[in-house]
Amino acid sequence: MTNLNIKGLKNKSTHSHISFSDSVNHMVERAFKVLNLDPGIAEAMQACNSTIQLKFPVEIDGKIEVFTGWRATHSSHRLPSKGGIRYAPIVNQDEVEALAALMTYKCAIVDVPFGGSKGGLLIDPTKYSSESMQKITRTFARELIRKGFLSPSINVPAPDMGTGEREMAWIADTYKQLHPEDVNHAACVTGKPVAHGGIRGRTEATGRGVVYAIREFFRHPGDMKKANLKGSLGGKRIVIQGLGNVGYHAAKLLQEEDEALIIAVIERDGALINDNGIVIESLKQHINEHGTIKGYPDATFTENGHSALELQCDILIPAAMEAQITDANVDRINTKLIVEAANGPVTFSADEKLRSRGVTILPDAYVNAGGVTVSYFEWVRNLSHIRFGRMERRFDEARGQHLITAMESVSQKQLPDWIRNEIVRGADELDLVRSGLDDTMRLAYKELSEARMENPGVDDFRTASYVVAVKKIARSYTDIGVY
Ligand code: NAD
Fold it and tell me: From the candidates 10, 82, 106, 118, which is the catalytic residue?
């Protein structure tokens, strides 16, 4: 029950509005123009290499249901190809291919040596029991494995909307059952629970990466000035859409570590607004208990959640899904900085309008790359079969202790406790993951800044990020040769 669409054979969207893939393609074409890229290379780069559509039956409560899922491999110039699997009641081939393309560019921007891929399953996970979800996920995974679309060396999924550690553990176990001889079986998927080969810090990685990107922006006074922003992140008024994995971790860190004010949270059932700030942890607890933001006592609820995207604020963080800022609302968007934690939240034509209005956008392909970055760390950890920091932690602690002894004996003074503790502490896996993520986001920002300086007319971060990505991918195509 498989329909393999090879490059060039997929149906083009016939809708009058522009599709998600076309939106991504048009944005990338700005970079092609700047770089004067060979049209053949450009076409090869934009084409989605292969997409598999699966229709598979699963018995649920004595009845057979047929599910539809996709996995698209946009590029395999680097292997494995990498990208999340989303479970949603609305997902289609075009969406999965657009997201796979974004993965290609994203990996290049943050120097993660993977191709781009993405998967989707048409399902409303809230309508099924955990047992049924496990059956469905295991069947989907088995089909993908059998068709060559899931393995440690070729194609490695991760969580996305509607999936998390639980689904990744089921997928890893399904692969292990089918390939017990593969010593690297744990590397077939990332975002697993730590007890099953996952890495500390993966769950929060995308949200944390979003915050590292914003902090880096705030270290660049010239960029802040252009966006009409001053001072530090503390007290900045933030509106966030989506309090799922990415949105929750980003909002929580911004509030607790940077003292930013989260003045509105938009969810699928409405929005909460409080000019003095919403306490994210307490709201999350309310959502976990009641399954909705409704009834949260310390903010004003509005049924028309989408309209809260138009609130006056310093930073707007769409962290839910694609196509949220469109021609329909772009003229009323009233923020200085848009941080695309979600994939594709701003459509191509809305992006053109925001650019002409001078609204700064930190684009998805850079901003939410923290997830794939830490997935890369997890994959490397799985292949090396050892936890990061295991060999050197105690050695570093002993060396720190020697350093303290030497400093104190030379100075005849005792160092304050907090300095002693910092020097003597060996990094554990979480420290290393956070350090690697922070470094990645900062280096990528530097490359985007250089691209903006070196290419006249490239002022916005989105075009700069695609210039960086396209250059690297084109280089890998021409180095190896297209044949
Ligand atoms: P999630 O399923 O954990 O959370 C999504 C949240 O958005 C949920 O709370 C949901 O209720 C809310 N939501 C859905 N539709 C909404 C709407 N119309 N209006 C307001 N809220 C809505 O998903 P996630 O993993 O946090 O992913 C969010 C976005 O980030 C997606 O675009 C995804 O592709 C992107 N992303 C995720 C990761 C990751 O590691 N999870 C990595 C990179 C990019």
Answer: 118
- Index of the ligand 1 atom closest to the CA of residue 159: 41
State whether residue 171 is helix, strand or coil.
Answer: helix
Among 367, 400, 416, which residue terminates a domain?
Answer: 367
SS3 at position 345: coil
Q: How confident is the model at residue 5 (pLDDT cuts 50, 70, 90)?
A: very low
Asked if residue 426 belongs to a domain, the reply is no
Atom of ligand 1 nearest to the CA of 266: 20
Is 118 among the catalytic positions? yes
Rounded Cα distance, 439 and 433, in Å: 10
Nearest residue to 251 (alpha-carbon basis) of 339, 332, 166: 339
Which residues form the domain of 240?
Answer: 205-367
Residue-averaged pLDDT of the chain:
95
Rounded to 5°, the CA angle 430-435-438 comes to: 125
Would you state the pLDDT for residue 483? 58
Task: Give CA angle at 363 (275, 431), nearest 5°.
Answer: 80
Kindly state if the Cβ of 266 falls inside 6 Å of ligand 1. yes
For 476, counting Cβ atoms within 10 Å of its Cβ (0-12 exposed, 13-18 middle, 19+ buried), the class is: middle
Measured by CA distance, the residue closest to atom 22 of ligand 1 is 268
Cα 321 to ligand 1 centre (Å): 6
Rounded alpha-carbon distances, angstroms, from residue 59 to 1, 67, 163, 241:
16, 11, 21, 36
Per-residue pLDDT tens for 367-422? 999 999 999 999 999 999 999 999 999 999 999 999 999 999 999 999 999 999 99
User: Is the C-beta atom of 161 inside 6 A of ligand 1?
Assistant: yes
Pairing of strands 115-122, 63-73: antiparallel
Are 167 and 236 within one domain? no
